[in-house]
Amino acid sequence: KQEVTQIPAALSVPEGENLVLNCSFTDSAIYNLQWFRQDPGKGLTSLLLIQSSQREQTSGRLNASLDKSSGRSTLYIAASQPGDSATYLCAVSADRGSTLGRLYFGRGTQLTVWP
Amino acid sequence: NAGVTQTPKFQVLKTGQSMTLQCAQDMNHEYMSWYRQDPGMGLRLIHYSVGAGITDQGEVPNGYNVSRSTTEDFPLRLLSAAPSQTSVYFCASSLIFLPGLNSPLHFGNGTRLTVT
C-alpha cells in the first residue's frame, strides 16, 4: 500500500525566508502528485499538480519538483509571508490496478510564518 | 461559482442514529469522492464515483453508503453511527476520473461530525 510521508510535521519561520517542504512516497507507480493548502476549518485548495512525466511545476512564489524514481517531491516557497501560514499536504495518485486514480495523502506540514 | 458545497457544517449524532451528509458540485465534474480526516491519520478515501450511476469503495468504506443518481450530487449515508466515525468529512470532485494537468481536485469546506 502506498505510504506518503511529509517532513517536517511543523515549521515556524520569520517572514521573508525561503523554505522547503518535503514529501516522500513508497510506491513510484504514480499518475501524478498534488500539493494542497488547508486553512483552519476549511477544505483543501489545490496549489500545484505535477504529472508523473514532469519534473516540476511553478505558480507564483511556489515551485514543486518531482523525482519519481526516488519517491520524492519538494515544495519550495519563496519569500514567505504571514498569509502563507497554513497546513500543506501532498497527495499521490496511483496509476494501476484496483487503486487506479486513488489519492493517498500525507499528514501535512503545518507552516507558521511570523511577521 | 459555488464549487463544491457540503451540508451540514456541523452535526452531533448519538450512537446508532443514521444521517446523510450532502455534497453538490456545479462544475459538471465526472469524479466525486468522500474523504475523512482524522488527527494524525491524514485524509482517507471512503467512497468515490466516476460518473452518475457508478460508485466504488475506497480505503475505509465500512459503515458508509453512497449513491450517484445525478452528476451534481453525491450524498454519503451513515447507516448506524458509531463513535469511531467522529471525524471531519470532505467531499471532493474533479473534471475527469484521473485528475489531469488541468483537472485538480476541488474540495468542499467539510462537515464536522461528532458521535456520542
Q: Could you characterize the architecture of this molecule?
A:
The complex is a heterodimer of chains A (115) and B (116). Chain A is 0% helix and 58% strand. Chain A has 115 residues and is mainly beta. The N and C termini of chain A lie far apart (41 Å). The model of chain B has no long low-confidence stretch (mean pLDDT 92). In chain B, the strands form two sheets. In chain B, strands 2, 4, 5, 6, 9, 10 and 11 form a seven-stranded mixed sheet that branches. Chain B has a four-stranded antiparallel sheet with strand order 1-3-8-7, with no helix packed on it. At the A-B interface, strand 4, strand 5 and strand 9 of A face strand 5 and strand 10 of B.
Give a quick rundown of the structure.
By secondary structure, chain A is mostly beta strands. Chain A contains no helices and 11 strands.
Separate helix tally of chain A: 0
Strand content of chain A: over 45%
Mean pLDDT value of chain A = 92
Distance between the termini of chain A: 41 Å
Structural class of chain A: mainly beta
CA(first)-CA(last) distance of chain B: 36 Å
What is the CA-atom radius of gyration of chain A, in angstroms?
A: 14 Å
Biggest pleated-sheet summary of chain A: 6 strands, mixed
Average of the residue pLDDT scores of chain B = 92
Total beta strands of chain A: 11
Contiguous runs where pLDDT drops below 50 for at least 5 residues of chain B: none
Share in helix of chain B = under 10%
